[in-house]
Amino acid sequence: MLSIPFGRTRFCDGVSRRNFLKVGALSFGAMNLTLADVLRAEAAAKQHDPFARTRHKAVINIFLGGGPPHQDMWDIKTEAPAEIRGEFKPIGTNVTGIQIGETFPRIAKMADKFAFIRSVVGARGGHDAYQCTTGWPQQSLAAMGGRPSLGSMVTKLQGNVDPSVPPFIGLAERTQHVPWSDAGQTGFLGSTFGPFKPSGPDMVNMTVNAANRDNLPDRKKLLGCFDDMKRAADYAGALKGADAATERAFDVLTSSKLVEALDLSKESPKVRARYGDGKPYQYQYDGAPTANEHLLLARRLVEAGARVVTLSYGRWDSHGQNFDLVRDHGGKLDQCLSALVEDLDARGMLDDVTVVAWGEFGRTPTVNKDAGRDHWPQVSCAILAGGGMRTGQVIGSTDRTGGTAKDRPVGFGDIFATLYHNLGLNSETTTVLDPTGRPQHLAEGKALPELA
Fold first, then answer.
1. Given this model, what pLDDT does residue 30 score?
2. What local confidence, expressed as pLDDT, does residue 15 receive?
3. From CA 203, how far away is CA 94, in angstroms rounded?
4. Of 144, 118, 162, which is closest to residue 302 (Cα–Cα)?
5. How far is residue 317's CA from residue 69's CA, in Å, rounded to a whole number?
6. Is residue 83 classed exposed, middle or buried when 0-12, 13-18 and 19+ CB atoms within 10 A define those classes?
7. What is the C-alpha separation between 439 and 429, in angstroms, rounded?
8. Nearest-CA neighbor of 273 among 299, 260, 292, 301?
9. Measured between alpha carbons, how far apart are the two ends of the chain, in Å?
10. Predicted confidence (pLDDT) per residue in 246-279, tens digit
11. How high is the pLDDT of residue 349?
12. Are the CB atoms for 29 and 195 separated by under 8 Å?
């Protein structure tokens, strides 16, 4: 972290300088001044309008940790026996011939904006986000650190859109089962290319200290205090000896643009109500909350200049009470995911931003004695939107029970090749050198021609 010792002197409506500097305690990769390391690559910092939106390609990757039940979401099996079909009925959508689960009425009304992949294969069965952030099995190149995630690769190849906004941001809050909150590993690229993580207490410090009306009623005064803080740092000699990149890192951590992006109070009540907050959080246990507002934050961060934003939404490990869980999680996901796509479309961003929501595997065709479904790596599902893709279609199908891919199996690598394609990177021709000097491709599949 970037830590500057100011002591406990109080200023700005009673907020201590030490508390202010918690803004600089955000995780960025695994190194102390990794943010500064990244910024060394920037030759000069331009002045940016903090309210201006950049036009760039981006991905919002929503991980549904635990393994969402495909038969109860996008692939309802109306012809299967009751012990397989479950409790949900299909509903029609605004695309003729496409039906989805009844807990997703908002998405059904705008299905023309989505592509439903019903035949995702190749899951390794691990309870982690690895394949959903990299597209590769975990053992691939494990001896040299593993495969880099999409966000790390994009950071390496495309860098910053804006010098004051990290290109790769992970919103996932830390979960008791830690692999479910993995924002994306850096693999053989090293921690310099890790995600910026405004999570847990650091998120609270950044958003609350910047917007809390009780402690900081005058926002203009707050922004003025950033300047006071930096002058105090120089006076105290705390930045003495720091190189230009470190000083620039300090500037970024007190940058209004990043603070603004993370400040949901800047959104209209109508927009925030459209997304909802996902509360009360239920069935969370050791997983992620259904934090609907993270999807809104993702849009704001992309708008500010992020290229890849990852988040973990809900806990879908439904060994028991599967149908109650899907009613809760599914209804909340229906609200915030449809709001995100609608929001991106209204802002003219949908063709530039690809949204994907998926989990590490599917669930068993047969319902168990606890009204749950168990792990099923044989086939799973994904839902995509935006990115200039040809949406309003279903890709692939499963057999009568939802147990195997019947036609058009789609691998994780195929989906990642599509994501890279949408970002302007050809996964078949673009390579990155590993530590041995060998070129490594970005994905092991091909971009889906159906979506081109």
1. 38
2. 44
3. 38
4. 162
5. 9
6. exposed
7. 10
8. 292
9. 42
10. 554 555 555 668 788 999 999 999 999 999 999 9
11. 98
12. yes
**3-state per-residue secondary structure call for the chain:** CCCCCCCCCEECCCEEHHHHHHHHHCEECCCCCHHHHHHCCCCCCCCCCCCCCCCCCEEEEEECCCCCCHHHCCCCCCCCCHHHHCCCCEEECCCCCCEEECCCHHHHHCHHHEEEEEEEECCCCCCCCHHHHHCCCCCCCHHHCCCCCHHHHHHHHHCCCECCECCEEECCCCCCCHHHHCCCCCHHHCHHHCCEECCHHHHHHHHHHHHCCCCCCCHHHHHHHHHHHHHHHHHHCCCCCCCHHHHHHHHHHCCHHHHHHCCHHHCCHHHHHHHCCCCCCCCCCCCCCCCCHHHHHHHHHHHHCCCEEEEECCCCCCCCCHHHHHHHHHHHHHHHHHHHHHHHHHCCCCCCEEEEEECCCEECCCCCCCCCCCEECCCEEEEEEECCCCCCEEECEECCCCCCEEECCEEHHHHHHHHHHHCCCCCCCCEEECCCCCEEECCCCCCCHHHC
Intervals of the chain under pLDDT 70: 1-54, 199-256
Q: In the prediction, which pLDDT does 244 show?
A: 52
In this structure, the number of other CB atoms found within 10 A of the CB of residue 193 comes to 25
- Find where tokens 């931003």 sit: 353
Q: C-alpha distances in angstroms, 159 versus 39, 164, 256, 367?
A: 10, 12, 20, 46
Question: What was the pLDDT predicted at 238?
Answer: 54
**Whether the model pTM is above 0.90:** no
Structure confidence at residue 252 (pLDDT): 53
